[in-house]
Design goal:
Elements (H helix, E strand, L loop, with lengths): L2 H11 L3 E3 L6 H7 L2 E4 L15 H18 L3 E4 L10 H13 L2 H6 L3 E5 L21 H11 L4 E6 H7 L3 H8 L3 E6 L16 H10 L6 E3 L8 H11 L3
Parallel strand pairs: 1-2, 3-4, 4-5, 5-6, 6-7
Amino acid sequence: MPAVELAKIGKQLGLVAIEGISADHYPAVREVGLEISLVGSHGFKEGPTSTDHHTAVEAKLRAAIDTAVQFGSPNVITFTGMQVAGMREEVAKQNCIDCWKRVIAHAEENNITLCLEHLNSRDDSHPMKGHPGYFGDDVDLCIELIQTMDSPNFRLLFDIYHVQVMHGDVIRRIRQLHPWIAHYHTAGNPGRCEIDENQEINYPPILRAILETGYTGYVAQEFIPTWENPVESLRHAIEVCDI
């Protein structure tokens, strides 16, 4: 549905923020009374694993940081990009670090956190359910990159759905990795569907585990609705996550 309509419904249902929409809609949704939880930047395909993308990635991240400052958002998303044929893992990791190092000072100066999203590479059934060939498909590799960056403004976007697909053991990973986590996404598995009883992830104990870590940031609903009424899908997800 249109972004502003979705924002109005989300506000009525009790949400406090929205993301994943065009920045063109930010002024209108802020007027609705929602915050911007995460600002988009470069896409997940053309990321810093390839030096061919460095100039564009740097420009888009800098612009996204400025947009985040303008609209009061704490976070900007980033990705590794796809694997490059024939490139050794160590080279790909260093390429990512080199690119992010060029923008991290701008993020730090503006108190904006760059959130590196881990994505699954297993599901090839739909372009938004999985991302075959994505370099950062191992959450431990993502943590290694974050630790190498060594900045309080470079953290992990822990997508519960993607972690479940690639690794499982979600609660243990949240407890182990929480010092490096700045943002969460939800969805049901398999299928990136509603977070109901027809999928395998049990969300209430996961949300309790997140709270127990002292986390105070956003948990964003990122499932693809399958119910006849998508508003009821969203209402249900809010209730499940209201711990």
